[in-house]
Amino acid sequence: MTLDDADLLFELDQDSEVMRFINKGKKTTLQEVHEVFIPRLKAYRNEVKGWGIWQVTLKDSGRYIGWVLVRPMAFFSENPELENLELGWRFKRDIWGKGYATEAACALKEALINKGGIKKLSAIAVEANKASTNVMLKLGMRYLKTELHKDPLGDAEVVFYEMTLV
Questions:
Q1: Which of 19, 50, 78, 148 is the most exposed place for a label (fewest CB within 10 A)?
Q2: Could you tell me which residues come within 8 angstroms of residue 137 by beta carbon, excluding any fewer than 6 positions away?
Q3: Gap between the Cα atoms of 39 and 55, Å rounded
Q4: Cα–Cα dist 63/16, whole Å
Q5: SS3 state of residue 1
Q6: CA-CA distance, 61 to 110, in Å (whole number)?
Q7: What's the confidence (pLDDT) of residue 150?
């Protein structure tokens, strides 16, 4: 996705169920997309390394159904882990349970592995978000720990999953 995709980011975040495990169901405003999320995307987006938010669309119709994020773990901290990439995803509710998150994240995982230069792939989720932790397991990640994840947008108790590549 590009810095011009604010409308698509906004559209996805208008379902309180989609946002339930992210911020307790609060819908994102268009102003927040422009003032918070687009600048964050700009900070970590690196096309050469494959970092950014990758738009996911249905092949047959081209319909936008969600995205998969790739960025270094702890990117917004004082010690980003440049050889440990975080995968994250967000999808429209009407396609949940159909394997699209797993398929898209798996394709990105393979592309990142083939590109080289990384030692780990990781993902985090609120423990109650069993759908996301199931995707992590399908990607070959294993549970690492449960602890407070610090982020400028708000801290949360999450489960950490990872896979070592080297």
A1: 78
A2: 161
A3: 17
A4: 20
A5: coil
A6: 25
A7: 85
Rounded to the nearest integer, the mean pLDDT of the chain is: 96
The alpha-helical segments, DSSP class H, found in 51-147 are 100-115, 130-138
pLDDT at 152: 78
Q: Structural domains in the chain?
A: 48-164 (3.40.630.30)
120-133 burial: b if 16+ Cβ within 10 Å, else e: bbbbbbbeebeebb
Residues 1, 8 contacting (CB under 8 angstroms): yes
Instruction: Write down the pLDDT at residue 42.
Output: 97
Q: Which residues pair with 84 in a beta bridge?
A: 120
71 - beta bridge partners? Answer: 86
Q: Using only C-alpha atoms, what is the Rg of the chain?
A: 15
Tokens representing residue 43 in the block:
């900070």
